[in-house]
Amino acid sequence: MRIRPFFWLILGIACVCVTILAFLYQPYVPVSLQVQMEQKQFMASGPSTLKLQLTDPDGLPIDEALVIPSARMTNMDMTALHNRVVPRGHGVYEVNLDLYMAGPWSITIQTQARGFKPQQQTLQVNVI
């Protein structure tokens, strides 16, 4: 029995398409976000610092991630005016927030890295 060249062509195109899709498709992997507070108490008189450690499921550090911090007071409509993220290398990021008023604050950290699911973590702190 002889197979027509048309069917060989279709089989070849299907193989090439599957190979290309296998190289282009990268599933998103969850990222592990660990937050350490360098300050035991947050003061309204100066900047507050948080230290973030981003790792993959195998424990390897994630560099070149996008870290988006935001802070707001929980009992009134106020947000932190200034925040800054400084990458320190080996998956460590330092977040500086200006929490300028005493009271309860909610700090939300959003992270995005290529090949990983975006993640968000919220901390509740009390500024004195």
What does the radius of gyration come to?
Answer: 23 Å
CATH fold field value: Immunoglobulin-like
Broad shape? elongated
Helix content: 10-25%
> How many separate structural domains?
1
Short key terms for the protein model shown above:
3-stranded antiparallel β-sheet; 128 residues; 42% strand; 4-stranded antiparallel β-sheet; Immunoglobulin-like; alpha+beta; 16% helix
Describe, in plain words, how this protein is organized in 3D.
It is a single chain. The chain has 128 residues and is of the alpha+beta class. The chain has a single domain, classed as Immunoglobulin-like. It has one helix and seven strands. The strands form two sheets. Strands 1-2-5-4 form a four-stranded antiparallel β-sheet, with no helix packed on it. It has a three-stranded antiparallel β-sheet with strand order 3-6-7, with no helix packed on it. The protein is elongated, with a radius of gyration of 23 Å.
Topology:
Blueprint lengths: L4 H20 L7 E6 L10 E8 L10 E8 L9 E7 L2 E6 L5 E10 L6 E9 L1
Antiparallel strand pairs: 1-2, 2-5, 3-6, 4-5, 6-7
Keywords: Membrane, Transmembrane, Transmembrane helix
InterPro entries: Ig-like_fold, YtkA-like_dom
Protein name: YtkA-like domain-containing protein
Concise account of the structure shown:
With 128 residues, the chain is of the alpha+beta class. The chain is built from one helix and seven strands; from the N terminus they run αβββββββ.
